[in-house]
Design a protein that fits this description.
Helices cover 33% and strands 23% of the residues. It is built from seven helices and eleven strands. The strands form two sheets. Strands 8-7-6-10-9-11 form a six-stranded parallel sheet, with helices on both faces.
Length: 260
């Protein structure tokens, strides 16, 4: 098979990294996708991500659980997307279809972290279905990462409040930017200026982009985030929907970082 090779992520139990010639078995979900959707057969080519390594591989068998044999390790552009900085999206929880879109497209644009947070403008939720929803969002991110040749599946998490989200991000040393259509400066300029000010010393490991709900941040939320030391930035002259803002912001940020 020539041309596009489908990508899979090795099960978490796989050693990282095994050597060329090793045989790995895909998990149930990927096996089903390989057999029923892609219709892969023995001899067909694919790619397998194992830990931080990406391998070219060949399907060697499987009626239900697909086995693949690793060949050479892929490097550089052949290994797909590779980034120097972590770019995360802190996305206000919105209606389900909007969240699905935002997670999928943010992953394709290169988000390495997606944190969903309940805000005043988010739809009400009992919390009883959170486990199932989180599993769905993680599955969407995984499929998007495979399709767009990402080096890893972004971590998808849920924070119950803005304060909890801030606490979880603090240890990551990310430069947080509050996306605000009324901000004075454009996101590209804010990220670019911050990088130049650090004089290439790696002051921050990356950027966290805060996306508000469909009705926007409340005054109280905005003030609390500004008190936490966030910068503000606008994406452009218009106003984007909440599901569009995250993916666009990731792309703009990676361009500003020279990490696209």
């Amino acid at each position: 098979m020539s041309g596009f090779r489908p990508r899979f992520f090795a099960p978490n139990s796989a050693a990282a990294p095994p050597g060329a010639g090793s045989v790995l078995t895909l998990d149930v979900e990927d096996s089903h996708h390989a057999l029923r959707v892609l219709r892969l057969r023995p001899g067909d080519e694919c790619e397998i991500v194992v830990g931080a390594a990406v391998y070219a591989a060949t399907v060697v068998g499987g009626d239900r659980d697909v086995s693949v044999e690793l060949r050479e390790r892929l490097e550089g552009a052949a290994a797909g997307a590779g980034y120097r900085f972590l770019v995360g999206v802190v996305q206000a929880i919105a209606r389900s279809s909007a969240l699905d879109w935002s997670i999928e497209k943010s992953t394709e644009a290169g988000a390495g972290l997606i944190m969903l947070v309940q805000t005043a403008g988010s739809p009400g939720s009992s919390g009883k279905d959170l486990g199932g929803r989180l599993a769905r969002w993680t599955r969407i991110a995984r499929e998007a990462a495979k399709q767009s040749k990402q080096p890893a599946v972004p971590a998808v998490d849920v924070a119950p409040s803005l304060g909890a989200a801030l606490d979880r991000l603090r240890s990551l040393e990310l430069f947080s930017v509050l996306l605000d259509p009324g901000a004075e400066h454009a996101l590209y300029d804010v990220v670019r200026s911050r990088g130049e000010a650090s004089d290439g010393q790696g002051e921050h490991a990356g950027v966290a982009l805060w996306v508000g709900p469909e009705g926007g941040w409340t005054d109280e939320e905005r003030e609390s985030l500004l008190r936490a030391g966030m910068a503000t930035a606008r994406l452009g002259r218009g106003v984007l929907r909440t599901e569009t803002a995250g993916p666009v912001a990731v792309a703009v940020t990676r361009l500003a970082l020279g990490d696209w």
